[in-house]
Amino acid sequence: MKKLVNKIEDVMHESLEGLVACHSDLLELDPEYRFVARKSRHPTKVALISGGGSGHEPLHAGFVGQGMLDAACPGQVFTSPTPDQMVAAAQRVGSQQGVLFIVKNYEGDKMNFAMGAEMCEVPVATVVTNDDVAVQDSTYTTGRRGIAGTLVVEKIVGAAAERGAGLTELAALGELVNASTRSMGVALTSCTVPAVGTPTFDLGETEIEMGVGIHGEPGRRRVALMSADAIVEELLDAIVTDLAPRPGRPLLLFVNGFGGTPQMELYLVFQSAQRSLHKRGLTVARSLVGSYVTSLDMAGCSITLTALDDQMMALWDAPVRTPALRWGV
Amino acid sequence: MKKLVNKIEDVMHESLEGLVACHSDLLELDPEYRFVARKSRHPTKVALISGGGSGHEPLHAGFVGQGMLDAACPGQVFTSPTPDQMVAAAQRVGSQQGVLFIVKNYEGDKMNFAMGAEMCEVPVATVVTNDDVAVQDSTYTTGRRGIAGTLVVEKIVGAAAERGAGLTELAALGELVNASTRSMGVALTSCTVPAVGTPTFDLGETEIEMGVGIHGEPGRRRVALMSADAIVEELLDAIVTDLAPRPGRPLLLFVNGFGGTPQMELYLVFQSAQRSLHKRGLTVARSLVGSYVTSLDMAGCSITLTALDDQMMALWDAPVRTPALRWGV
Description:
By secondary structure, chain A is of the alpha/beta class. Chain A has eight helices and 14 strands. The first copy, chain A, has helices at residues 11-22, 83-93, 107-119, 149-162, 167-179, 228-243, 263-279, 310-317, and strands at residues 27-29, 36-38, 47-54, 71-77, 99-104, 124-129, 181-187, 207-210, 221-224, 250-257, 283-290, 300-307, 320-321, 326-327.
């Protein structure tokens, strides 16, 4: 394993310190590393808190800032944060308007955020994301996994919170965005967890894993390497069948890199996906390309589609100022 | 070789189409793929044009937009663009105020941009970047290579052009920024050029290449994997010795990923570098972390330092709106 690290046990802390030092205008770090918080907060707005295992950067700490999250609770690599982290974050950024937890559908995350919610002194609602159409159950999940679509939920709900929406309304909006969003990914290589030091799974020189999870969990099938167009067709077939957007409904197309994939390939995949959607009579109204919800150094990508309505589109377009997403401000 | 591509000969075109489709508010693509141009241009401003081989994305096309480049001319992967591309780009975006070429110091690029300059009908000046302190001459270069510091030149000079500076002034500013900037990189893995299909160089399971070039050219030495802190020390020793910034001079610290390195590691390197600079009595006033000047799928990073003055700092902070860099607008 070759990685740019010092002691394995310091990877998460040192990386968080770098993130917050680099973006000290936007972020502050809890001295015990329990959360990364937004520096300038509205005292009366509903606070959005997310979190999960590290190794998916910039998710979630890179999405803390104006128009998105108020805090993110990082666990060790691919490990859930603990309930005391959510409680500490809620104490720091929460208001009497309440706190919304946005949680990817993994057993550990769900359980720990639920325990955290019980321990909070302010009202808490929770949205669980489960946008991955690849498989029904998986290594760490009952039901569908929450993957890159989580970014879309955090962006759209974050914009609504910034505009002053209440807790119940935000929770309903989060459910709506999640229900309007589907994703599926493909791995060309495994990732390597620093503390393990060897690849999470083995993939042959000419094999790919269709439907891989963001921790290297198994997908639908392992097949021989195909062209980008053929991969995109298979991902979109699964996503579009499941989402079933009516023709004319504006779509957000989000091509997400897993960490080890160069941008040149991601834009090539975007071009292929947009062309395929056009052939299917579907309209790409908004787009995003980049490595936003990653799996350490895994090569590969996921495609996410969200069927937008006018409100979701306006909230997607609303200003956002975070380390990883920034527009309109 | 596993990559998300279709036919090898279509990689550059399909990727450029994806970039421009995703950022159609900012960019337009020449139908013959000779350049990517900024969509909304000032008719009276000096036009900034850069370019070079593909495989370094987002450099250069991802830096086309408000406050940075007016056009970028892409060559095939790691291959110089041809003079007709610069001429066509200058015809599209040039004004009577002239055109500034920003060129990384590689023989092919320099020669072709020089030929392009001779063929242009508007006044042309050229800035050649050579920020890499690793080696004096290299595979494709006489003198020092131009690497990630090129971004800093494009950003600062781009902001000055946006404010209406003239061609002579911009060329002088570009020379000043380049002279104030030093970089050095390290590779943990090789890159693989799609048309070749095998790694550009061989690196053992526990070896790294200190001072690697952005096409996989040899660096200073090949050594056993070290801690991130030790790697940072060696890179900064070389950079700081060569730049010799006086204490108190504000520095821009830019940690650049080569394409296959996860963000988690880049922020860890940033934290290490900032700490080391502080110990050296030096002050980080501005910072940037991300994969901006890449080498396809190479794992590794480079560190860039620019010794800023008040003017450079104000121009660095000025609004920029491009696919890859965006702030203040």
